[in-house]
Amino acid sequence: MTNLYLIRHGQATTQVSDILRDEGLTPLGIAQAERLRDRIAATGEIAADVLIASTLPRARQTAEIIAPALARPILFDDEVQELRIGDAEGMHVDEFRAKFGGYNVEEFPFKPVATGGENWGMFALRVGTALDRIIHEHEGKTIVVVCHGGVIDCSFLYFFGMNTLVLPETRFYTHNTSITHWRKSAPFGRTPHWRLVRYNDDMHVRDLEAEVRIPWEHLPVSPKRDQTMTPNQPTVPASESD
Fold first, then answer.
1. In the chain, how long is the greatest CA-to-CA distance?
2. CATH of 2-241, one of 3.30.565.10, 3.40.50.300, 3.30.1330.60, 3.40.50.1240
3. How big, in percent rounded to 5, are the helix, strand and coil portions of the chain?
4. What is the pTM of this model?
5. Over the stretch 173-217, which tens digit does the pLDDT of each residue have?
6. Angle 204-210-211 from CA coordinates, rounded to 5°
């Protein structure tokens, strides 16, 4: 069984500023990452074998905050970065629009964000290639990748075999520090395949403005559901088990 957990970074400066420069997490982003760390430490729900992180500051900082709860060294990987914006880096959004005309991926999917940047197809190919490498290098393990919303979007394109040249009709809105969990297993002895276990699980930030904390240490970890059938177990039709 292979488990792949994709975790989006906490709220970043790029989300609240008009300057296209990644300067790491905002105070809220730090608090979100700390809540995730506390949740993982209390529940033990992610028994990581490998911890990988994007090298961009917002993902790097998030990984450094949650790493103690996972008890694994961080392996930094450039290939799970967000869409690369090239020469737009450091620009004010007004300057970016004036010089490069903005970025309209829906109408112009083959246009790079800016000189030296990526277009949508290039980005999706890079992420798909990176995910393919990671899951094969660490097959049979529990892998955690701290990355970006766009990377998580592309994981759906990769695992569901969707068109990667243009944006899909169905869109995603991945929350900061949310958990997306993919699992490859062979339920009931059938051919192994990937399943989406959960998406956008950010329950740990729901108590940020509450008077009480979520008591994670008292909540049960979800039971393992993908177990090999024994001869005494009843056969479950594919339509019911999937």
1. 69
2. 3.40.50.1240
3. 40, 15, 45
4. 0.88
5. 999 999 999 999 877 777 889 999 999 999 999 999 888 899 998
6. 125
